[in-house]
Each structure stands twice: as structure tokens, then as C-alpha cells.
Amino acid sequence: MTLKQIFVVLFVVFSFGFLNDKPAYQLFDEKGKKTSYKKILKEVEGADIILFGELHNNPINHWLQYELTKDVFEQINESMVLGAEMFEADNQNTLNEYLSGKFDYKTLKTEIKVWPNNTTDYQPLVDYALKHQLTFVATNIPRRYANLVYKFGFGALNSINDDGRKFIAPLPIAYDKELPGYKKIVEMAGGHGGDNLPKAQAIKDATMAHFILKNWKKGQIFIHYNGTYHSNNFEGISWYLNNEKAGLKIVTIGAVEQDKIDSLAEENIGIANFTICTPTTMTKTH
């Protein structure tokens, strides 16, 4: 076969592969332009905090969370702290005991509140922390207290005793009801839940930000895993972090699903520093 014939064959093969490609995801930057995983890794080099927003049942999101965690640890900064919305602050002591090797996962999942997809989606991150002796922070407010806010507003938190308040952001809670994300929650709920629905979201955001900062120190990178809505548009957790401590370098990663992923839909542009776009037909983890 001549060199020309080899070139033609390779051209056909690569062209055919490209035209029939079925990418599982596409990354975009804040301006909605296609970008790469390497660009994300470069950007987080100088980060204090990474807010990795996810769609809870999306396997690509979870895979990228694990890959980014591993690559940050191995290539950028071994002084790393992990934390997640999926674990509530009153379970921290039990989680610490697991991370110190006192018992196995079978015991852990019976002792704390875990999500239905914990085994496949979040436990690998916890076990990465176990393997490398990293701190893993249960950042979320206990759901009973979030439900209290949903029913009765912020004022109901004043009835919680001192032991319970250890698991909540310090009172009183700063709150801006005019933030677009909180206003949208009211719109999406069609009026159900009233003014207390976004407040229940806000107490989660505030508490997660509080425990992130409580467990982070200068020179470390804190990677936090949360539902994408908790950090979209640089609001939510990000707003509370900046409200409590100015000057942080926070890198946000958001997640969306679209019928077509070759370009980012107008409404999804700018929701984060980087956005993971996956097809709506993507397999769900639960």
C-alpha cells in the first residue's frame, strides 16, 4: 500500500469516526464556548474552594467528580479537604470514625443517613478520603432543621438548643430574597411553600458555606460536591462564602442536560465557570 493509499484510508476512518461520534458530555466555559478538562484542571490550580455542582442522578457528573478529585490530589495539591451536601453535619462524628478505620461501610450506612445512590456515587469519594487520610466534611444542615424553616421560617431556629445549633450556620442567617435563584424557586413551586421555601434552600446554602470555611485554611483546596442549583449563577453557597469571607478564589462547576450537546443553550450560559453538558438520554444512577 502506497503512502497516498494509507492517507486515504486513515482519512476515511477518522472522518467516519468523527461523523458518527456519540460524545457522553461536552464541557463549556463561562461564556458558553467549548473547553476541555485540561482547562478546568489549570483553572483550579490556584483555587481555594471548588464548588462542584451536579445533577444528582447523572453518572458522568459523578465520574468527573472522582476524576477531578484524584487529579487535584495527585497533580496540584495534596493538602486537600473534601465535603458534600449529601452528608448532614450531625453525622460528622460517625463519618470521622469511619475515616479513621474504626468500622466498615456496612456499619457506616446503617449508622448515618445516606442517599439512595451513595454506594455508587458518593462512597467512592469518601473512600478516596479514607485511602489518602483526607478530611471529609458533612456540610449540610440536618434535614429536620431545614424542614423547620420550611414550615415556620428562620425564626423557628431560635427554638433549637445549643447542642442542635452546632449543626447550623450561626444565627441570625443573612438572607437576600431578591437573589434570582431564590426568586426562581418560588416561581417553579407555583406559590407552594410561600416565602419559606427559598429560606429552606438558603439555610442549606448558609450551613454548607459555614462548614466549608470552618474546615478550610489558606493553602488548601476544598472540593465541595453539591446539587448544581446550590451554586449556579455564583449564588447559593458561593454567595454565602463571599459574604462570610471576601477575597476567596472560588471555582464553580455546573451541570445541565440538553437534547443536543454541541452547543450550550442560551439559558445555560454563564451558570458557572465551567459547565458539564450531557444528553437528556443519559443513564440515571437512581
Question: Could you please describe the fold and organization of this structure?
Answer:
The protein is an alpha/beta fold and 286 residues long. The chain has eleven helices and seven strands. The protein has helices at 3-19, 37-43, 59-76, 92-99, 105-111, 118-132, 143-152, 162-165, 180-188, 196-214, 237-244; strands spanning 26-29, 49-54, 80-88, 135-140, 221-227, 250-258, 274-279. A seven-stranded mixed sheet has the order 1-7-6-2-5-3-4, sandwiched between helices. Helix 9 (180-188) packs across helix 10. The protein is globular and about 55 Å long. The N and C termini lie far apart (52 Å).
Count of individual beta strands: 7
Number of helical regions: 11
Average predicted confidence as pLDDT: 93
Give the strand order of the largest sheet, numbering strands 1, 2, ... along the chain.
1-7-6-2-5-3-4
Global shape? globular
Oligomeric status: single chain
- Give the ordered list of helices and strands: HEHEHEHHHEHHHHEHEE
Based on helices, strands and strand pairing, what is the structural class? Answer: alpha/beta
Classify the beta-strand content into a percent band: 15-25%
Q: What's the N-to-C terminus distance?
A: 52 Å
Helix content: 40-55%
Largest sheet: 7 strands, mixed
In the predicted model, the low-confidence regions spanning at least 5 consecutive residues are 3-19
Radius of gyration, rounded? Answer: 21 Å
